[in-house]
Design a protein that fits this description.
The structure holds two protein chains of two kinds. Chain A is an all-alpha fold. Chain A is built from 28 helices and four strands. Classes of the chains: A mainly alpha, B alpha/beta. Chains A and B meet through α21 and α22 of A and α2, α3 and α4 of B. The complex binds adenosine-5'-triphosphate (ATP) and magnesium ion (MG).
């Protein structure tokens, strides 16, 4: 039957002459454009200093070289026609990939010739002659162009070949390449960790003195990763997670428990073995996990797009500063942020209280607004709060642009946690994040959590089902505000001095991106998002693991957001929900939330 | 033989949306155990009537009385707690939540949580298809399945009065018939049903009584037989319904 609809040619392997040339031309042009853009953004010049495999492969080259492979791969991928069989792969796919790569290389060498001939750095400040040096490998311009075209063609050919080979081989190649590059990128952390474990010699074997893997190490790693890739089952992480969800409840519960115990042990012990730099990264991640979890309740659970979330962070920080800084007119010498003493509890209590009030103040006027209006108004509120702290009018209390300095460090009993001790700060944040995770988790599976989901899906119907939408919206705002103000409190104690500039709109945006990229409504997603964005790329002001990317951080954030929205809108680690065995859990959660345990729980359990 | 005290009553209710006068002196009386339909063309105010019952729109004058209590100005939550539930127009499931979670939301305000399990079972009995799809996202269900879940969700509230807004809209004729069979079945176990319809023929064939709304005014009311026999109504609605 299908034969009549689907052309014969699509079902059989087509000869090499039968290439979809318009597709190739399109992908080639896109590839060339991407390479030109990457170079024009200045990435090649900056990242060239970072070695991946010493001495011949720099990060600057890698971010160009993936392009022909990728577009070659795309050009060789043809859609399976509806109702037809998947087209048989063959030499024409190789040809398509190769020509695509060659085209991309050709367009790119135009750029090289262009910047070699004319100094256009006035218009595009990154296209400096220095870039030519990098891109011509110190040879003549003609040779360089030829190298780029032929090299890109070969890379495109590899891309095309990846379509032709069996999935197993494809996995082997991808694992080998990606694994090796990741180990190279993690140089800082791995060295740090090995030093902590007193096995520096392993790090010395892996990495060259100038940075980057040694050629031998790269080779060994590629082989190891290649073999693992070849032997792997090829199931995606998502598939595995889905399968896990289908396991019997007891097995799943046990595995979850084990996973949590391992995580907790890692959180406790890893910081001891890594150096200050890694701990600094971890502390930054912790701060954004705490804030992300709060915003996740507002945006992920309740579906209220809050663009002014930084306001609550600021409120928490300023509350702490006003109460504890010796400079503040309201300074009370008795009040210190000591988590083991009543004075400290007063500060924490005040932060929670003021945060909640801020949540209600911002929440109440916007409660009637929906979607885009809500986003715009919260955006405005976020700025208003910052401008209030900046204003001359309130400067007697908040110090205007000078902010509030001399905020004492947090303490735990007799132990001071100086802001410079990032390991201690990380532990502090880990404790607060742990509590926030627990609260988020209980909320998610509570009756309130279910009502939030309904609100997010369809506000009118939620109301018609008898859900008090006003009340649950405010609850979401207040819960989110509390998490952020606690983060603000720790932030103030960590940095010791706060200024309005520390609470820019950019922070709201970054937290939102963390939540979206991680997976809205998913607790693990927030953690994954914070690790990837804050830990790896860096926060709004904090450097990340890939410090070299520092100046391109926002560019990469943006690109990541676009790709995620197009390809994986549910986020990196979406929440999967298992159909639970009826209301037993939920009832317990309710009892926990309303604070009256017992009631009819016992009957239901029986 | 209807019970003398109505379970649901409109006493000359007027509704304004800003300057627009949508319901004009509407009087409705529905008695326990009855099935009553509200007929009317587009924009005649049918959905508004249901929203008024649920307290989602406030009358500019007049009263809504439920079970002998004046409920004008009460919150939707209070009214739902009294046992009034709606199956909204176009079903409107919570699309990215599972079927199971949709059903759960229906029981949001119920206090007698120990009975939920049994009620779920009775819904699965009524709609075996629903049981098969419990962990599927509601947005991916077929239209007919969505209707089942929408009804199931409303029933999870254990309503005394079930409001249905155009249940047959967008369903294939065979499903429309099935749907009305279900409504009849629900009514037979003692739930009062107030159903809004444009499909007058079908609605009147199972209802006890009906009201006809025209640009916000009740222009006709009576038993189903009387309405079916009414010449004006036949001209206005039934001709349409037959050809549809
Ligand atoms: N929120 C609102 N604001 C302003 N006008 C409204 C609002 N809701 C409904 N209306 C108007 O009230 C009138 C009645 O609307 P309603 O939804 O009750 O009609 P309906 O009888 O349910 O129609 P349909 O059969 O098309 O669903 C319409 O003219 C509509 O435009
Ligand atoms: Mg309507």
């Amino acid at each position: 039957m299908a034969e009549s609809i689907v052309p014969e040619s699509i079902q059989k392997s087509r000869p090499a002459s039968d290439v979809d040339w318009s597709r190739v031309a399109r992908q080639g042009a896109l590839g060339g454009l991407t390479m030109v853009f990457i170079a024009a953004a200045g990435m090649v010049t900056v990242l060239d200093k970072r070695m991946i495999v010493d001495p011949w492969l720099s990060l600057g080259l890698i971010i160009l070289l993936w392009v022909p492979v990728f577009f070659g791969f795309m050009a060789a991928r043809e859609p399976t026609p509806d109702g037809g069989e998947a087209p048989v792969k063959g030499e024409r796919d190789l040809l398509a990939g190769m020509v695509t790569g060659a085209l991309a290389g050709l367009y790119f060498s135009f750029l090289i010739v262009l910047i070699d001939r004319f100094d256009i750095s006035d218009w595009l400040s990154n296209l400096l002659p220095k870039l030519v040096d990098i891109l011509t490998f110190g040879r003549g311009i003609g040779t360089a162009a030829a190298i780029w075209i032929i090299g890109s063609a070969l890379l495109g050919l590899i891309g095309g070949a990846l379509q032709v080979v069996s999935p197993r081989v494809r996995r082997m190649v991808t694992w080998a390449v990606v694994g090796t590059i990741v180990v190279a990128m993690l140089e800082l952390i791995v060295t740090n960790l090995f030093q902590g474990l007193h096995i520096e010699w392993v790090a010395d074997l892996l990495y060259a003195p100038r940075g980057g893997l040694t050629t031998q190490a790269a080779f060994v790693l590629a082989v190891v990763f290649g073999i693992s890739g070849f032997r792997s089952s090829g199931k995606s992480l998502d598939q595995r997670r889905q399968e896990r969800m289908a396991l019997p409840k007891e097995v799943l519960a046990r595995r979850n428990l084990i996973a949590w115990i391992v995580t907790v042990i890692a959180v406790i012990f890893v910081p001891m073995f890594v150096g200050g730099l890694t701990n600094e990264l971890l502390a930054n991640v912790g701060l954004f996990v705490l804030m992300g979890l709060g915003l996740n309740i507002v945006v992920g659970y309740a579906g209220l797009l809050d663009l002014g979330y930084v306001a609550f962070f600021a409120v928490g920080a300023y509350t702490t500063a006003v109460l504890t800084s010796t400079e503040s007119p309201y300074w009370m010498p008795e009040l210190t942020l000591n988590f083991l003493r009543p004075e400290g509890w007063i500060v924490v209590g005040a932060v929670i209280l003021v945060g909640s009030i801020a949540g209600i103040l911002v929440g109440t006027p916007v409660i009637r607004l929906r979607g885009d209006y809500l986003a715009i108004v919260t955006l405005g509120f976020g700025e208003i709060v910052r401008i209030l702290f900046l204003s001359d009018w309130l400067s007697p209390y908040f110090g205007g642009a000078q902010g509030i300095t001399n905020i004492p460090s947090a303490e735990i009993g007799p132990v001071v946690i100086p802001g410079t001790n990032s390991q201690a700060i990380f532990y502090l944040l880990a404790v607060f994040s742990g509590i926030a995770i627990y609260v988020s988790w209980r909320l998610q599976h509570s009756r309130l959590g279910r009502a939030w989901s309904a609100l997010r899906e369809d506000e009118d119907v939620a109301e018609a089902m008898g859900i008090n939408t006003t009340a649950i919206k405010l609850t979401a705002f207040v819960t989110g505000a509390i998490f952020a103000s606690l983060a603000g409190m720790i932030f103030a104690a960590k940095v010791g001095a706060i200024f309005p500039i520390s609470f820019r709109l950019l922070i709201s945006i970054v937290i939102l991106v963390v939540v979206i990229v991680g997976g809205m409504g998913s607790i693990t997603g927030v953690i994954v998002g914070a690790v990837v964005l804050i830990g790896v790329l860096g926060g709004p002001t904090q450097p990340g693991l890939l410090q070299e990317f520092g100046q391109f951080k926002l560019l990469i954030y943006g690109a990541l957001l676009v790709v995620m929205m197009l390809k994986r809108p549910e986020g990196l680690w979406p929440s999967l929900r298992r159909q639970r065995e009826l209301h037993h859990d939920e009832l317990r959660q309710d009892a926990w939330l309303t604070g009256d345990p017992g009631q009819d729980t016992a009957e239901v359990d029986a | 033989m209807p019970d003398p005290s109505p379970i649901l009553e409109f006493r000359s209710v007027n509704i304004h949306y800003g300057p627009v006068h949508v319901l004009k002196d509407v009087d409705i009386e529905i008695f326990p155990g009855e099935m009553v339909c509200l007929l009317g063309g587009n924009a005649s105010g049918k959905t508004t009537t249901l929203k008024t019952i649920l307290g989602m729109v406030e009358p500019s004058s007049g009263d809504v009385v439920i079970d002998g209590t004046v409920m004008t100005g009460s919150t939707t939550a209070e009214i739902v707690s009294m046992g009034v539930t709606m199956v909204p127009e176009n079903r409107r499931l919570f699309k990215r939540m599972t079927v199971y979670e949709n059903l759960e939301i229906g029981a949001y305000l119920r206090q007698d949580r120990e009975n939920l399990e049994a009620d779920l079972e009775s819904i699965y009995e009524m709609f075996p298809r629903v049981k098969e799809r419990l962990s599927q996202k509601a947005g991916t269900l077929s239209g007919g399945e969505q209707q089942m879940v929408a009804v199931g969700r409303a029933l999870m509230a254990k309503p005394k009065v079930l409001l249905m807004d155009e249940p047959s809209m967008g369903l294939a004729p065979v499903l429309v018939q099935q749907n009305f069979d279900i409504i009849k079945q629900i009514n037979d176990v003692g739930v009062t049903v107030f159903v809004v319809e444009q499909n007058a023929n079908m609605a009147l064939s199972i209802a006890d009584r009906g009201y006809v709304l025209q640009t916000g005014r009740i222009v006709l009311e009576g038993t189903a037989e009387a309405l079916l026999a009414n010449e004006d109504l036949r001209k206005a609605y039934l001709g349409d319904a037959d050809s549809a």
